[in-house]
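[step 3/7] fold_predict: job queued, chain A
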Amino acid sequence: MLVYDQDKIMVVSENMGDVIFVKEFEEYVQETGFSIYLCRGYDPQTKGRVEKVVDAVKHDFLDGRIYCGIDQLNAACLEWLDGTGNEQLNSYTKKKPRDMFRDEYRKLIKVYEKRNTDIVVTTPHNAVIEYLDNHYKLPENAVPNDERVRVEKYDDTLLIYHALTNDLICRFPVPEGTGNVVSLPQEEKVLSIEEENYLHTKIWSYTQMEGRFINSEIIGRFQKYLICEEKSNATIEKYIRDVTAFASYVNRAAITKELVIEYKQYLLDEGYAIRSINSMLASLNSLFAHLGWTELKVKSLKVQQQVFCPEEKELTRAEYERLCRSAQKKHNERLCLILQTICSTGIRVSELQFITVEAVKNGNAVVSMKGKTRTIFLTKELQKKLMRYISEQQISEGCVFITRTGKPISRFNIWREMKGLCTEANVDPRKVFPYNLRHLFARIFYGLEKDIARLADILGHSSVNTTRIYIVSTGYEHLRCMEQMRLVI
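[step 4/7] structure written:
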């Protein structure tokens, strides 16, 4: 069932309860098979609950936020949902939205567009599914009761998958005509790993003969591949997001090298940053390598290493100190200590979770991120401040920087609170980001030690080329250095 507000775009008339839809929406309802529930006009018992969600997003998430582009807004919204929106207990249900969705997800029906391969979703009843006026009996105990399956047709073969996991259950020969009841021979009821691999090889061969396509099956298997490669969750999410965006762009067209190059130019025309485009292309190249489509891989855009960074993007030490004082004036001790912890240790904002009560007592934290482990030392002054904060907040164990619900504070909340300091601290909001604190640490450390290899180890970089980005000076400092050379006679 889908719930809609009364809207003239979809509804012609309520017709005394026998609702009349506009032609296009009526066709959509018939195609999907969904039942439709329309909220009654001016009825707070139905509309109010939906509109309250919209109101929460407007006031709890969007109010006071500086718009810096749709990509950044989407990323911030996802973080807000993870840390706040989906984690708050509902006053009526007494449950978290995330937990309720997890319980209801198994009952949801995924909607597919009509395709030539006749992809549909159905619910097995007594282990028998109906597809194109034929009935197919699934292997015994292959699918639990009320579990949903996905059906795909390739030539004369029907493939049955778990709708949630994308795991192949079995295959059927497609009979001629309609009204047939198709069962599997006894020896074919359970597919071996070799049979499954052979079948997918056959499917991919078929797609290669007709052209190369990206569908949900390929994206699902690419995700499993990334998991087996022990990629971080953030990396997996980004790769899948980039591949899905490309699949949406090609719109089920056959993938060619020319089309990938065209997509590369499209990203440039849309104004994406060069580094962002290169990261998207890296995701696609990884997919192509996984599928064996190596001839489709494209080159990344060349980027000249910057000699200096724009002054309006780099946070200075004086500005950092003003931000800390501003946090103190606002009596936000947690934020003040977060700023000092990141800037005095050089850790990533995602690594704050490793600053625990135990780590503070020991004077060092063991950080395990991106498949690497390193030890971060806490200065004595920082250790004293954190111990005082832990005592005042009565935190006995676990992460030091937590929310009221006891969960580690999210990067979005840190970002939002930092932005709230800009006006009073008289700092340009464009340079107030958690990662700029890490950059400030790198520049000051390198100015004292002049040891880029050691700095790379402290920051957790695999390559010093990455560290070079952190220690680039501003244009003003670069100009001052050139003037000191006194080469103009």
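[step 5/7] annotate
Residues 193-210 form the longest helix (18 residues).
The domain at 311-478 is CATH 1.10.443.10 (hpI Integrase; Chain A).
exit 0
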